[in-house]
């Protein structure tokens, strides 16, 4: 036996070092797991869903634009035309809004652009209302719920005729 050296002291130091190492590795692993869980929701679930919603909004905008162009193509010289159409009630389980309007053209200030805007929260898609140009003023809004109506009145206002749009 060596003097001044005890065998138990070496084992106690080794046990404490192993315990500290275990706690440090566990803490770092738990920290990385928490960071990963916070990022999984955004990167793995929300981003692909937002991409799908954007594509669906673009499809809906193109469909509404096509229906409006069809009504314009068959519009009578005098009279009113109504058409009903249906768009999906919800996209990815949530409601959305469709707005048709005009805004100033940034290139040609004398002419206004007409657009269809589909939006929900911070997701927005603008589709140009092509084919009509600035020849007819279009306005209105709807949601995906129920049947939707496009109305064309040759007088340009709904107050001059018996049938109102």
Q: Would you write up a description of this structure?
A:
The protein is an alpha+beta fold and 165 residues long. It has a domain of 94 residues. It has a four-stranded antiparallel β-sheet with strand order 4-3-2-5. A two-stranded antiparallel sheet has the order 1-6. The chain is rod-shaped, with a radius of gyration of 32 Å.
List keywords for this structure.
two-stranded antiparallel ribbon; 41% helix; 1 helix; 165 residues; alpha+beta; four-stranded antiparallel sheet; rod-shaped
Number of DSSP strand runs = 6
Task: List low-pLDDT spans.
Answer: none
Question: How would you sum up the major sheet?
Answer: 4 strands, antiparallel
How many helices does DSSP assign? 1
Strand order of the largest sheet: 4-3-2-5
Which sequence of SSEs, written as H and E, runs from N to C?
Answer: HEEEEEE
* Terminus-to-terminus distance: 106 Å
Beta strand %:
15-25%
Mean pLDDT, nearest integer?
Answer: 81
Classification by helices and strands: alpha+beta
* CA-atom Rg in angstroms: 32 Å
Approximately how much helix is present in the residues? 40-55%
> What gross morphology would you assign?
rod-shaped
């Amino acid at each position: 036996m060596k003097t001044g050296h005890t065998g138990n002291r070496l084992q106690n130091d080794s046990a404490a070092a192993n315990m500290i190492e275990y706690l440090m590795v566990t803490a770092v692993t738990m920290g990385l797991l928490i960071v990963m869980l916070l990022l999984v929701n955004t990167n793995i679930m929300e981003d692909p869903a937002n991409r799908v919603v954007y594509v669906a909004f673009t499809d809906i905008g193109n469909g509404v634009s096509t229906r409006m162009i069809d009504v314009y193509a068959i519009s009578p010289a005098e009279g009113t035309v109504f058409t009903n159409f249906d768009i999906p009630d919800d996209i990815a389980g949530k409601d959305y809004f469709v707005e048709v309007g005009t805004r100033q053209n940034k290139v040609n200030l004398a002419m206004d652009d007409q657009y269809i805007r589909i939006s929900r929260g911070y997701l927005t898609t603008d589709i140009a209302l092509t084919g009509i140009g600035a020849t007819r003023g279009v306005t209105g809004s709807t949601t995906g719920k129920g049947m939707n109506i496009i109305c064309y009145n040759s007088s340009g206002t709904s107050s001059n005729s018996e049938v109102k749009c």
